[in-house]
Design brief:
Shape: globular
Radius of gyration: 31 Å
Strand content: under 5%
Distance between the termini: 96 Å
Largest sheet: 2 strands, antiparallel
Number of helices: 26
Structural class: mainly alpha
Length: 646
Amino acid sequence: MPAAFHNLYLVPLFPLVSAAILLIMGKRLGNKVSGFLACSSIFLSFLVSCWAFINLMGLSSDFGGFVQTVYQWVASGNLIISISFLLDPLSGVMMIVVSGVSFVIHVYSVGYMHGDPRYTRYFGFLNLFVFFMLCLVMAGNLFLFYLGWEGVGLCSYLLIGFWFENIEYARAGMKAFIVNRIGDFGFLLGVILLFWNLGSLDILTLNESAHTLNPGRVTLICLLLFMGATGKSAQLPLYVWLPDAMAGPTPVSALIHAATMVTAGVYMVARLSFLYALSPVASSVVAWVGGLTAVYAATIALVQNDIKRVLAYSTISQLGYMFIGVGVGAYAAGIFHLVTHAFFKALLFLGAGSVMHALGGETDMRNMGGLRNKVPWTFWTMFIGCMAIAGVPGLSGFFSKEAILGAALGKNVGIGALGIVGAGLTAFYMFRLLFMTFFGEPRYMSASGGEKHAHESPWVMLLPLSILAFFSLVGGYLGVEELLGPYPIEGGRVIVMALSILMAFGGIGVAYLLYIARPGVPQFLAWRFSGIYRLLLNKYYVDEIYNAVFVAFVMELKDILAMFDLKVIDRLVDKTGEAGTKVSFASGDFDLQKVDGAVNALAEGVISGGNNLRRVQTGYLQNYFLIALAGAIVMVAIVFLVAVPH
């Protein structure tokens, strides 16, 4: 095997070492050193990934994959857990995408986070995030896969709530963490069932033995694994955390949405495609959930006014397209769209960050407008990103979306129709974003009532935008089908292409009509269809429903269990001695001075009994003689009463 294959461990090692240094050394390094170290570590990972991938392309087409075992961690019966990395075309593509896009985002962060008091901690968390994602995509077994899966969840919590002084931002981080725990419970059960039935966690071994599973068992396993994917990749019904993930710094949003966490679920289905291919039922569920999510999230994005929130719902919708692809068996098409989406979605988020930088943190598109001459570089790069995601012919999104729609229409007309509708909606809301932000009269005002001084971002932020814009243009020509295998275009290539082009230009045309030619029409439509408008603006009230049905119940249960703990399990005493010390619950306040509990009462009873019993130990011989004599008399009396007949 090529020498590059034996250095795979370096890919995740570089960001891990950098994260450890940044989080331990902290501010001693200084911001310049911290930024350079963080960016350099990801760039080195990217170079090693490219080196390995180039060598991989030189091997024959029947190459099944190379596994590098760094060391064996656990060996107990059939359970063997190793730190091992798998290199094949799928993981090779993902290594380059994750490390490459992450490097660009790291460079952008140097300018965006300039002046933040926790600058080094931010880059430490960012490096750690990339480390866990690389572990996930390179994992040779499901244990390491699960380690990376949970690691990106932890890092998302740390980065979404990075500015934790704002309680809403902190709550957004907790929401992401908790919602993902729900999905991860199903994922863990699926992994356990796989090991229980096949006796291994090694991915290549599972691939060889998966055919021995009975259809019912493999369907159950696939659905449990997909439950985790709906959380990580923000699909119905566990998508609710992703729109609130905008609370973190904008480069974090770009990293989560483009190159790391949310793509994990799609990658998991593609990586375990040998299982999903055995279960038409589970694959159908994946495709239908993806199709419904694509349209559902797109309808919400139609009326949102926060620029980052529009992009968040766009991500949810585009992930739906990826799940359509892998659900209908076009795994290469799904991964192809994952790759192109990484380019243009990172570009759009970083572009939104550049707009915010120009307007002092403004995110409401109603307070923008007329920016195309103020920030021309940002405008043109975002224009390319909008065309790519809309599916304009020749750009990256057109090729990957066409591949998915062709496969979907050939497999199931209903799923294909959802994809077609979603494509038109995508083109509309993305150009609505572009027109509201960069065209029309300026609507941005300073605190004093005058016009804000909008300014272009520094080169350290514009260079990453340019790189991502370039790949958004040419990413469709990467030839993913040659790397991962051909994907079926069963819907008729000419028809699919015509539908894709029609939806792209149709959506753009309607957006132009409503926001450039007739800018007063959107307000009229919002008034005329106020019920539908409010429904979409409030995101179908799903958060409110979840809060009323699930969150309120959990909070009440929490109060009951806490009261049980205070009254029965434990005992609390007001150590300050101040009357009226309270602990608050949803049901009211509770006075700590009145609390008594069984466990502490039992403990104090034992202590009190011991204190009393130790008084027997006097040290006087005559006392011990009297006790022994009394004991003997008691024993004789018992024997007399029991043994002597009456």
